Amino acid sequence: MVVNNPRLINLLSEEQKADLASMEKQFAHHLEYTIGKNRYNLKNEDIYKALGHTIRDFLIDRLNFTQERYREQNPKKVFYFSLEFLMGRTLMNALINLGLYETIQEMLRGIGFDLTDVLEFETDAGLGNGGLGRLAACFLDSMATLNVPGFGYGIRYDYGIFNQIIANGSQLEMPDHWDADGVPYEVVRSDISFSVGFFGHTETRVSGKGKIQHDWVPDETVLASAHDYPIPGFNTSTVNYLRLWAAKSSEEFNLDYFNHGDYMKAVQDKSISENISKVLYPNDTTEQGKVLRLKQQYFMVCASLQDILIQFREFKYNLKDLPDFIAIQLNDTHPSIGIAELMRIFLDNEEMDWEPAWEIVTKVFSYTNHTVLPEALESWRVELFEKLLPRHLEIIYEINYRFLTEVRNKGILTESEIQQVSIIEEGNEKRVRMANLAVIGSYRVNGVAALHSDLIQKTIFHAFTKVFPEKFNNKTNGITPRRWLLQSNPNLANLISKKIGNEFTTDLYRLKDLEKFVDDADFQNDWKQVKFTAKNELARIIKSETGITIDPSSLIDVQIKRFHEYKRQLLNILRVIALYRRIKENPNAEVTPRTVVFGGKAAPGYYMAKLIIKLINNVAWVVNRDKDVAERLKVVFIPNYRVSLAEKIIPGSNLSEQISTAGTEASGTSNMKFMLNGALTIGTLDGANVEILEEVGAENIYIFGLHTEEVFRMKEAGYNPTNFIHQNEDLHRILLMIRENFFSMGEPGVFSPIYDSLFYTDNYLLMADFTSYDETQNRVAQDFRDETTWTKKSILNVARSGKFSSDRTIREYAKEIWKVPLLDTIPPQTIYKLPQN
């Protein structure tokens, strides 16, 4: 098995040729001895698995090298705690970051296989729900690329975010057993496991020093077993890791039950214990689901903190030095129980006094907030919390008592504001507010876009800003250009590199150099060809996934994201109905052909979001079968939206829908992905859209709707949606079509909740924004007809997207929050080349 491509061989140094020969030998070895295949019965699946094991070997070499380097230099390290890591597919990303893509491509061609087909065999690691988990994945990539000693900690769920199928227009959920065929790049650390306790009670004793000490005696113990996923940096030898914990029973089965003939009872405890890492986001509408979710949160932080402290103690430092060597970032409130857990370790295990323990804890943690919606802030019933984690509730009560006493003594807050900052929410049902614990126990609190960071200080955390004005800051989100340009859109990446070189891969601001070519007719034509190729590929995928044939030359208008009422997919489909009705009533009118594409999942228990999905599918069924609108309007819902699908949809898109109600979206990152791939944005002044507008200029983005302050004022004044419905005859007739079952002839009344919601409450002000949205969409349609001007806007969107790299975000975290170094780059052994299609 030898690469016979002279062009490739001539590019390689003697050392690289030796590396290639070594890799070929490893690949052949894994194919025969790990996978158990020979040359006569090979399939893409076999090649993928053998290749995965080969790259795993390569990654482990660099991982060990990186760890040895950290051991020698002992820099401050970052540990990113997140209950979600939406990694998607790993192998292609690793090949690109390692500079091995073209080498492997040629190697496989030499044996009659195509790398593109092989990579399609990999299943997405869907261990996250949406933007939160995808952000975490981008951050890990950037930390490794910037040589930050940074590591992820989370849970190795057996089942990720569910697989979505559409039946009769409705979402159905199917299990996502993402690792059913094995995970070749996974490194199982069977020697790293920790005990995690639940339930039980606390006991007091007098220590040898005469101090009263507390001991937690759990009733249930589970083992957390480590699984590592190497994270290679781009064009550097650094390989960090994501460590995910799998739950294992502390006993295989209860021998006493077994000996008495009750085998099922003997293994029942094992099954219950291992449920902790069984599924992402268990349904928490039941008491059992709530207990399991809180168990997951504590399970992850308890194991991770034990792991971190063992690593720290290798250097025999005093615990008071912990903040000099350790920074822990809490990605949302899910891991915030870690603050109480670290206090428990210091107080109970290390027998430290409260004040020095609290000083250390509050210098280690920092907290990223991801919501401005008060109802989305996580809280737990005190009764449930006390049952599951009795000692931690005692510690939280003490944290709260000391904090409120200090605040009262300083006279900073009113009594009403003191109630707002209390960790314990009083009332008929006492609750533990995890966001308040995170703010009080962290040394920095950040939002994820400029508007969002400003809003959380003015609204949900306003009282806290009077106590901790120095804590709050902004870190606008970003995306990794390796995944979201090099991997997802190699044709565009190659076109860009031919004009401005490859430096943009690690310095996205270098894309600014494209502006000098914006009026170059040849470059415009090349740009249009790249986009049309991507649109043709998207049309092929849509046909394959849905059976719907679309016109690739149409305006491809895309909204792909998690379904939630505040994201307003409903506003989009209402406008589609308006367009459909106008074409029907005036079939000779000039209409810009448009394909409206939706994708996304609704939480299984979120009734209204699932009903909106059904409405979209029902509208699509009517529109796509109507010959009067054929070739002018198509509606597509692509099922089972996931990272690998987004990588195919985004490059083929013309218009990016970012239309949340102003003041509700924390940031958004799909807006950045579309921008980087040359789509134009239609959106409200919400989240990171505000900063995209600042970067790209008002003439290169389509902004509509109420501003945040106007939304707040309208709601305070007593918003009445019927005022807007009666002012807009078009809107009134659209709602009648829904009410009168035009899109649900076989299921009369099924969409009544949508009609009632819009007509009587309209919590997210769709009726107030509809006219502005409609008029702006008309302007989009008109502008799209001017191909040259649209292409210029597309080029400028890419050229001005530099700010939205996760590399920039991580540099800011490293410098301003974590205080960690960017270590010197160790050049990789291989030459980096952009992947070729």
UniProtKB/TrEMBL annotation:
Cofactor(s) recorded in Swiss-Prot or TrEMBL: pyridoxal 5'-phosphate
Catalytic activity: [(1->4)-alpha-D-glucosyl](n) + phosphate = [(1->4)-alpha-D-glucosyl](n-1) + alpha-D-glucose 1-phosphate
InterPro entries in alphabetical order: Glycg_phsphrylas, Glyco_trans_35, Pyridoxal_P_attach_site
One MF annotation (Gene Ontology) recorded for this entry: glycogen phosphorylase activity
CDD domains recorded: GT35_Glycogen_Phosphorylase (cd04300)
GO BP, one annotated term: glycogen catabolic process
Entry's EC annotation: 2.4.1.1
Top-rank lineage group of the source organism: Bacteria
Keyword hit for Transferase: yes
Keywords (A to Z) from UniProt: Carbohydrate metabolism, Glycogen metabolism, Glycosyltransferase, Pyridoxal phosphate, Transferase
Glycosyltransferase listed as a keyword: yes
GO cellular component terms, A-Z: cytoplasm
Positions carrying N6-(pyridoxal phosphate)lysine: K673
Top class in the EC scheme: transferase
Described purpose of this protein according to its UniProt entry: Allosteric enzyme that catalyzes the rate-limiting step in glycogen catabolism, the phosphorolytic cleavage of glycogen to produce glucose-1-phosphate, and plays a central role in maintaining cellular and organismal glucose homeostasis. Phosphorylase is an important allosteric enzyme in carbohydrate metabolism. Enzymes from different sources differ in their regulatory mechanisms and in their natural substrates. However, all known phosphorylases share catalytic and structural properties.
Similarity annotation: Belongs to the glycogen phosphorylase family.
The protein's name: Alpha-1,4 glucan phosphorylase
Protein species of origin: Leptospira biflexa serovar Patoc (strain Patoc 1 / ATCC 23582 / Paris)
Gene: glgP
